[in-house]
From TrEMBL:
It comes from Acidocella aquatica. AMP binds at residues 31, 36, 57-59, 85-88, 92, 161, 172. Its EC number is 2.7.4.3. The keyword Cytoplasm applies. Belongs to the adenylate kinase family. Pfam families: ADK, ADK_lid. This is Adenylate kinase. InterPro entries: Adenyl_kin_sub (IPR006259), Adenylat/UMP-CMP_kin (IPR000850), Adenylat_kinase_CS (IPR033690), Adenylate_kinase_lid-dom (IPR007862), P-loop_NTPase (IPR027417). Consists of three domains, a large central CORE domain and two small peripheral domains, NMPbind and LID, which undergo movements during catalysis. The LID domain closes over the site of phosphoryl transfer upon ATP binding. Assembling and dissambling the active center during each catalytic cycle provides an effective means to prevent ATP hydrolysis. Some bacteria have evolved a zinc-coordinating structure that stabilizes the LID domain. Keywords: ATP-binding, Cytoplasm, Kinase, Metal-binding, Nucleotide biosynthesis, Nucleotide-binding, Transferase, Zinc. The gene is adk. It is found in: Cytoplasm. Zn(2+) binds at residues 130, 133, 150, 153. It catalyses: AMP + ATP = 2 ADP.
Length: 217
């Protein structure tokens, strides 16, 4: 299974791709998570990416394409992968086509999560994750079952992303509209684009994605 989950910041790409990873045993590849790990490690990639991410812009295509080329060639991708947050520009989509062509892999579907802008801002501003295992939560929509304790690993420390501040969220939405939305027609023309209602409850979005997967066989 080779899938792309596409949608604006806060649309639920991370939430749904983590579910698909555990359900189907395919690798979830989030370029945002990979970049945050580089920033944390203080690597040259992290140093290059940090100020751009903090401002809500997009990191260079060249850096991202290099990172993805290396990532999808790893053994855990042999059973397939879900791309979360990549591609984000037309040059990235074209580079992915070349990478897949080289490895004779076919993209099954590009699933777009459609969510209104006001809802995105609400989702992002309430988001937090477990510092230990990365499980995602929300102040309103998904609290841990026991207050202050991660459902998955029992961790008690939670973090909020520096780019989830209101002013940065607007810059991220602008970057999505200007640079990422143009890849929707690119995949539509290839007959690979499926849209689901990302405004629905998490379980319902999950069910809609599974319906697309059944449809494409
Ligand atoms: P990245 O980490 O990819 O962030 P993003 O695209 O802005 O997406 P988010 O992680 O904010 O949202 P999501 O869609 O995953 O939503 P989530 O599931 O968490 O990128 C960060 C930065 O890295 C970029 O700004 C850029 O600088 C750089 N970057 C990354 N990739 C790049 C690339 N390819 N090229 C260039 N630069 C790149 O859900 C959000 C919240 O809502 C959660 O709290 C969740 O619990 C809740 N929620 C989810 N679904 C629902 C639902 N159905 N109902 C109610 N609540 C829900
Ligand atoms: Zn945890």
């Amino acid at each position: 299974m080779e899938l792309i989950l596409l949608g604006p910041p806060g649309a639920g790409k991370g939430t749904q791709s983590k579910f698909l990873e555990s359900r189907y045993g395919v690798a979830q590849i989030s370029t945002g998570d990979m970049l945050r790990a580089e920033v944390k490690a203080g690597s040259p990639i992290g140093l290059e990416a940090k100020s751009i991410m903090d401002a809500g812009g997009l990191v260079s295509d060249e850096l991202i394409i290099r990172m993805i080329g290396e990532r999808i060639s790893r053994p855990d991708c042999a059973k397939g992968f879900i791309l979360d947050g990549f591609p984000r520009t037309v040059p990235q989509a074209e580079a992915l086509d070349r990478l897949l062509h080289e490895t004779a892999v076919d993209l099954d579907a590009v699933i777009e999560l459609k969510v209104d802008e006001a809802v995105l801002v609400e989702r992002i501003s309430g988001r937090f994750t477990c510092a230990k295992c990365g499980a995602g939560y929300h102040d309103t929509f998904k609290q841990p079952k026991q207050a202050g304790v991660c459902d998955v690993c029992g961790g008690t420390e939670f973090i909020r992303r520096p780019d989830d501040k209101a002013e940065t969220v607007h810059a991220r939405l602008e970057a999505y509209n200007a640079q990422t939305a143009p890849i929707l027609p690119y995949y539509k023309a290839k007959g690979r684009l499926y849209s689901v209602d990302g405004m629905a409850e998490m379980d319902e979005v999950q069910a809609q994605i599974e319906a697309v997967l059944r449809q494409i066989g």
